[in-house]
Amino acid sequence: MAGRGRPRAFDRDEALGKALGVFWERGYQATSMSDLTAAMGINSPSIYAAYGSKEELFKEAVTLYTATEGRYTRRALDEQPTARAAVTVMLQENAAAYADPATPAGCLTVLAAPIPVRENSSVAAHLARMRAEVRDLIRRRVERGVEDGDVRPDVDAPAIALFYSAVLNGLSIQSRDGVALPGLQQTVAGAMAAWDSLAAPDAPTAPAAEPTGGTFGEPER
């Protein structure tokens, strides 16, 4: 038939899953096109034709990761009945996922491009936005807890979100460093021990923090 292009000789979604595994294990910068062609079983021209570029392939892989491995965070924050339970389950389930021997250790969005350089600045910014979205999800869950009465009304929700997102990201780094699940679980237990003084309805009111300069979540200049 005239005008009909040659069909791809590979399963695009299956190949994307294989690319995800490589990016997750090696990170964005250290992953070469030869690594990708070997894992995906297709040549470079086919990769460019199907995905556009290495960067676009990576971003599609991150989207797949978020929909699969990244589901634990959203599910916990959406489904648990209290803010404390939501944060606890979020940390516990992610810790278990990070330590799962069936997949690379840690979280792709934390580890794939931790240091922005000229060659990966766009990718690093993309991942930073995704981590900020998780922080915002935690903040909104804490604010919902205030509305529901299981979080004290004067709580600093952005500060709570910043703290627990830092714990979440730290679990990923600990896992990549070789800390086994029991150690990650101890980290989770320690972080949740702080919840009662930070956000429980019957906790004493904390004194207002002195301003440090700069806006929340941004470094002081």
From TrEMBL:
<feature type="DNA-binding region" description="H-T-H motif">
    <location>
        <begin position="32"/>
        <end position="51"/>
    </location>
</feature>
<protein>
    <submittedName>
        <fullName>TetR/AcrR family transcriptional regulator</fullName>
    </submittedName>
</protein>
<feature type="region of interest" description="Disordered">
    <location>
        <begin position="201"/>
        <end position="221"/>
    </location>
</feature>
<feature type="domain" description="HTH tetR-type">
    <location>
        <begin position="9"/>
        <end position="69"/>
    </location>
</feature>
<dbReference type="InterPro" id="IPR036271">
    <property type="entry name" value="Tet_transcr_reg_TetR-rel_C_sf"/>
</dbReference>
<keyword id="KW-0238">DNA-binding</keyword>
<dbReference type="Pfam" id="PF16925">
    <property type="entry name" value="TetR_C_13"/>
</dbReference>
<dbReference type="InterPro" id="IPR011075">
    <property type="entry name" value="TetR_C"/>
</dbReference>
<dbReference type="InterPro" id="IPR001647">
    <property type="entry name" value="HTH_TetR"/>
</dbReference>
<keyword id="KW-0805">Transcription regulation</keyword>
<keyword id="KW-0804">Transcription</keyword>
<feature type="compositionally biased region" description="Low complexity">
    <location>
        <begin position="201"/>
        <end position="213"/>
    </location>
</feature>
<dbReference type="Pfam" id="PF00440">
    <property type="entry name" value="TetR_N"/>
</dbReference>
<dbReference type="InterPro" id="IPR009057">
    <property type="entry name" value="Homeodomain-like_sf"/>
</dbReference>
